[in-house]
Amino acid sequence: MIRTALATLILAVSATASLAHSKPEDTTPVNDTTVEVVDVISIRFNDPMRVTAITMTGPNGAVDVDRETGLEPVTEFLAAPAAAIPAGVYAVEWRGLSADGHPMQGTFGFTVSE
């Protein structure tokens, strides 16, 4: 009886782990790096993610970002600054819905050199 309960618990934990949330794997620019220019902002996920919002801020405040990826679930989200951005420290914040329907959010940052 205890073995059956333990086996059921192990099976339940394994099933839950297989339904894990989508996670970001890589970003462009890479988090906490210094780059000379930013032509594209990308986030690569391990499972499809529907990115519902993305914002970028820098030394002069909010930066306009043009989405290249729509609202469909993707494993790679693409956007670009609407115009060339000056040197400084930048932060990108995103929100979305993972493949299992859970709301997710994250941030990454980079520096544009002079």
Automatic annotation (TrEMBL):
<dbReference type="Pfam" id="PF04234">
    <property type="entry name" value="CopC"/>
</dbReference>
<feature type="signal peptide">
    <location>
        <begin position="1"/>
        <end position="20"/>
    </location>
</feature>
<dbReference type="GO" id="GO:0042597">
    <property type="term" value="C:periplasmic space"/>
</dbReference>
<dbReference type="InterPro" id="IPR007348">
    <property type="entry name" value="CopC_dom"/>
</dbReference>
<dbReference type="InterPro" id="IPR014756">
    <property type="entry name" value="Ig_E-set"/>
</dbReference>
<dbReference type="InterPro" id="IPR014755">
    <property type="entry name" value="Cu-Rt/internalin_Ig-like"/>
</dbReference>
<dbReference type="GO" id="GO:0046688">
    <property type="term" value="P:response to copper ion"/>
</dbReference>
<protein>
    <recommendedName>
        <fullName>CopC domain-containing protein</fullName>
    </recommendedName>
</protein>
<feature type="domain" description="CopC">
    <location>
        <begin position="21"/>
        <end position="112"/>
    </location>
</feature>
<keyword id="KW-0186">Copper</keyword>
<dbReference type="GO" id="GO:0005507">
    <property type="term" value="F:copper ion binding"/>
</dbReference>
<keyword id="KW-0732">Signal</keyword>
